[in-house]
Specification:
InterPro entries: NamZ (IPR008302), NamZ_C (IPR048503), NamZ_N (IPR048502). It comes from Candidatus Coprenecus stercoravium. This protein is α/β, with parallel strands linked by helices. Helices cover 28% and strands 17% of the residues. The chain is built from twelve helices and 14 strands. The strands form four sheets. Strands 1-10-8-7-2-5-6 form a seven-stranded parallel beta sheet, sandwiched between helices. The protein has a three-stranded antiparallel beta sheet with strand order 11-13-12, with no helix packed on it. A two-stranded antiparallel sheet has the order 3-4. Helix 4 packs parallel to helix 5, helix 7 crosses helix 9 and helix 9 crosses helix 11. The longest helix is centred in the C-terminal third of the chain and has 19 residues. The radius of gyration is 21 Å and the shape is globular. The model has no long low-confidence stretch (mean pLDDT 91).
């Protein structure tokens, strides 16, 4: 059973919501500005909240809300390729309410958990009703990159989803539901009736500790490719995914011509940063900060690939041995090594993006359509 609903959660008349045992899958973004409280507080006050599932290390606030008698289930979103979801996490509830902000990328770890929840419910024949409190896509309706094929590394994200997908959380859930062949009841509640939609922008509450800013998500699906190299993408700084650099790139700070790194959608500001954790912790990194040009579309995946390719061609010593596991696309990796031309990569990405847009239309719930980012810049 599937339904798309245009009234808020607390207006639903479903008996399972009023009398059943409820679980919630959420993080700190599940906050209601109308009531100035978290969703779990509202449901707990109603008397039927039994479980709260949340990513450990990001939502410890739930342990401080006085949810006595409610089972708190923190889980790791970095389980080394092993799914953090099992049937035991979903036992003892009749309905699961899902409320978190997706970052618009196939690398989103909490959206991957939602996909695993669907798989677990389906394969174990569990009749748990799922209610998705839909959210706008932080990155808008833009599409970037290629869909991840089967058998790829878990580092590459969610199978079948491109680097930047353009769908809302509810639309992704609709796709997961269909492709899983699930039979449990799924209900999507339109983001247009959410109080948060009326008062706040999607990025008002950071969806993750490493997605802190207004523009971070627009860079994320491209800059995450740098995790397959020895470059820093600014993780461990106050602006993750908005910086890129490394300790060995100091010569590029003296070069007055940064055109090899440039892109029509961003300004490049030479910068020095010191990560507080992760790669190059405590070391001075030389590189650039990405600053968006207002109103100009930006293809972050294409830009990241060109940055990596330039460093490889320059003989800067950049290690790209793990790029394939993150990119999930051999043509992209071939481009970085100079075996594929820019025009060949451009055509490959164009075809893949068009295929995704045609497929995604079947699962869309709103009138605004998906679009490709057509700002590819020539490469010398």
């Amino acid at each position: 059973m599937f339904s798309f609903r245009t009234t808020p959660l607390d207006h639903q008349e479903d008996m399972v919501l009023r009398k059943g045992r409820l679980g919630v899958l959420c993080n700190q973004s599940a906050w209601n500005p109308d009531r100035e409280e978290y969703l779990v507080e509202s449901l707990f006050r109603n008397g039927n909240l039994k479980k709260v599932l949340y990513p450990e290390g990001t939502s410890s606030v739930f342990g401080s809300l006085g949810l006595d008698g409610c089972t708190l289930v923190p889980f790791s979103t970095d389980a080394g390729g092993k799914s953090p979801v099992d049937a035991g996490m979903l036992e003892g509830i009749d309905a699961l309410v899902v409320d978190f902000q997706d970052t618009g990328s196939r690398y989103d770890s909490l959206t991957a958990v939602l996909y695993e929840v669907f798989q677990t419910l389906h394969h174990n024949g569990m009749q748990v009703s799922v209610y998705i409190l839909d959210r706008e896509n932080m990155c808008g309706r833009w599409v970037e990159g290629t869909a991840l094929g089967s058998g790829a590394s878990g580092l590459a994200g969610i199978e079948g989803i491109p680097h930047r997908h353009g769908l809302t959380l509810g639309e992704l859930a609709n796709l997961f539901y269909s492709e899983t062949g699930a039979r449990f009841p799924l209900h999507i509640i339109s983001y247009l009736v959410r109080p948060a939609t009326q008062y706040m922008m999607p990025w008002s509450i950071p969806p993750r500790p490493d997605i802190p800013g207004l523009f971070t998500s627009n860079f994320y699906c491209g800059m995450v490719l740098l995790s397959g190299t020895d470059l820093s993408s600014g993780e461990g700084t106050s602006r993750p995914y908005e910086f890129f650099g490394a300790p060995y790139l100091s010569e590029y700070m003296r070069d007055t011509d940064s055109s090899g790194f440039s892109d029509s959608g961003v300004f490049l500001r030479k910068a020095v940063f010191v990560p507080r954790k992760g790669r190059y912790e405590g070391q001075k990194c030389f590189g650039f900060q990405l600053l968006p040009k207002p109103g100009v579309p930006y293809h972050s995946v294409a830009h990241a690939l060109r940055i990596i390719r330039k460093l490889v061609q320059d003989g800067a010593g950049t290690d790209v041995s793990a790029l394939s596991a993150v990119a999930g696309d051999e043509i992209m990796c071939s481009f970085v090594h100079g075996r594929t031309t820019w025009d060949e990569l451009k055509e490959h990405v164009k075809v893949e993006e068009q295929k995704w847009i045609r497929k995604a239309k079947r699962y869309m719930l709103y009138d605004d359509q998906l679009s490709r980012v057509k700002t590819f810049k020539s490469v010398n």
